[in-house]
Specification:
alpha+beta; elongated; 20% strand; 2 domains; 330 residues
Length: 330
Amino acid sequence: MAAKDIPDPLTEILLGLRLDGVEYGRCVMREPWAVAFPARPEATFHFVAQGDCWMRTQATDWIQLRTGDALLLPRSTFHVLASSPDAPCVDIDTLARKAVSENLYLVNGTGCAAAGAKPAQTANADADADADAEPSHTLFTGTMRFNLDPLHPLLAMMPDVMRANDLAQRDPAVLPMLEAMEREVTLNRIGACGILARLADVLSASIIRAWVECACSDATGWIAAVRCPQVGRVLAAVHRQPEREWSVAELAGVMGASRSSFIEKFSNTVGETPAKYVARVKMFQARHWIAREGMRVAVVANRLGYDSEASFSRAFKRIIGHPPSEARLG
């Protein structure tokens, strides 16, 4: 392979980044309405298909969203979407929903204002009664799961809210996808929800790519380290094979430097020693295997080269903050 055909280290790491859709919902609302989305371990995607609305998070004040806006919340912090900042608020899980397929739902929020003052059962009944009412707003919402650990440096650096429209000028593919999503919602054709779900997956990945490209123009920290020609090769190799028992000599060889110059260059650029960074990446991978793939702790310990389950558990708790047994999803 020619040198020009070899992807740069950041591109190589991004090639391994994947978003898997968990569920999607087409939400119809009638103003006044406000819906709270609780914090979740997955990422959240919103597309405003019809009607301008507002959003706030715990860290930001209200911002206005226009029809055609798309948002990605990579860490799914608590947030509220509303027709106006003073509308009565209900939890998204209290709204009536109808399954379209295994992971697609139609969510009826036309009785949202009534739901704010009534028990969920009564509110759902009211929402059903309003099912034929003309909605003022239509949203398409998705819940997605990264294949990276939430503490991965790339995810940790992402802002709480990423707006596609802010990044559209950097990535020419973003605007056509937004327009395609708007057409699918407007035409309401057969299979529209399924197509919207696939578009949401691709658009979310494009939002992340555009953000990385924007951030890299004046990048500092981890992204700058990955972009460094020498250190970047080492980081890409570690993330490509987190289960490998990397020695300092092997990592220095990847950089093409002596042991001492490698340690100095890596530590100054990344902000921690090679051993600490490798250990953190190993534990991110371990938590993924345990939580997402249901792998037994003993198997993970053996796969990562630990002499015993006990020594692995101690290392896991030291880095992650809790024992591996608590990493399993409920």
